[in-house]
């Protein structure tokens, strides 16, 4: 019995020790989990620098190119984490896509858009904001682009950390402007271009919000508030899908395919009109079949908008990858060309290896760091369902077309977030209007107090103020940071 008691005590001690080790392993895994994503990102950034050294070949400038590639990869990661949320957030917030599904679709379509229809020329970055000939030597130009790339990446990283969707285009613009001013003074900046960019701070969100609110009003008045919602949906949902198809066809022609073939604005509209008409005719029997047996209630309408919303999110991701990959690799391409050919004022072509850094950086950034912004855009500004999210996605494409027609520079981030604001504020106005109409023949009720009025708000004011403040300070903050980094880099690296 004594031996059995001794064995039992040994086993109990062993179980306790194993339990402690197990608890230690779980604690270690829990503590290390936040470091996994930054670790993968660091490996990607280092591989980008190593690949750049191999691709650039044996040259005395290989180390500088590697450093620029590291900064470019870092910027691409931040664009994926911040910008792509604008395309996928509404679909996730409306529960049309899971977080994993949204990330998978966005990663595929962002990469495809960047590689298939990504920008060959980034003239605004290389010549539109700061005249390269005013900066001086090739070496100074390289350090200016390096500072612009790093400053814009740091600013977007900070914005992602605080949960503010900002324009990566404006971040890069601010970085180039700040480095240009530090290198050659205020006279080097094209101030008319900067004025139009500043005007887009107001134009983009307002236009996006108005168009999104207009489509939501149309859906409510023609479908949701009708006695027979399903019969109304059979008529109008194919029309809305046709409008979406036409808008995205024109959008992709303007922002993506025009980089492959020469497409005028009129031709893009013709392509959109033709495809929109065809899709409208095709979807009439599809929606009729899909709506059979549905109950006459708002919940049933979500089924009819689910697939179009997913498709629109995928198309927005493709167009974003095609259009905004230059934000990540534009300054890098300018550096590669300046060091390779010695020309800083020519059109900047983006080599394939540079495009790969940008394309895969967008996807990695979305996968590793995107969920936070996706949740904020999709559910924390205002509550979205498939109909409201559909209005946001459709507004993004329509606003780009209208802005292109008017010749206005716009930001895809500002458009998407402005559209969400527009949907939320329209819901507030519509709810108040219907409440007043319902109380028209009833006795006067006491006016609700400030707390009750605040509770009824459908748009979170704190997010409105945070995002608006981030938008306003993006260009000056990126410019100031870029100027400081330019001074630091030139002090460390010298004139060469």
Structure notes:
It is a single chain. This protein has 18 helices and no strands. α3 (85-93) packs antiparallel against α4. The chain has one domain (39-438, 450-493). Helices cover 81% and strands 0% of the residues. By secondary structure, it is an all-alpha fold. Residues 444-453 have a biased composition (Basic and acidic residues). Belongs to the inorganic phosphate transporter (PiT) (TC 2.A.20) family. The chain crosses the membrane at residues 35-56, 62-80, 92-117, 140-160, 172-191, 197-219, 231-254, 260-282, 303-322, 350-369, 389-406, 412-429, 464-486.
What is the quaternary state of this protein? single chain
Series of H and E elements: HHHHHHHHHHHHHHHHHH
Question: How helix-rich are the residues, as a percent range?
Answer: over 70%
Q: What is the number of domains?
A: 1
Into which percentage range does the β-strand content fall?
A: under 5%
Total count of helical runs of at least 4 residues: 18
Question: For the residues shown, what is the average pLDDT?
Answer: 78
> If you compute it from the alpha carbons, what radius of gyration comes out, rounded to the nearest whole angstrom?
26 Å
- Name the overall outline: globular
The end-to-end distance, rounded to whole angstroms, is: 84 Å
Poorly predicted regions: 28-32
Q: Classify the secondary structure makeup into a structural class.
A: mainly alpha
Q: Profile the largest sheet.
A: none
Tally the beta strands.
0
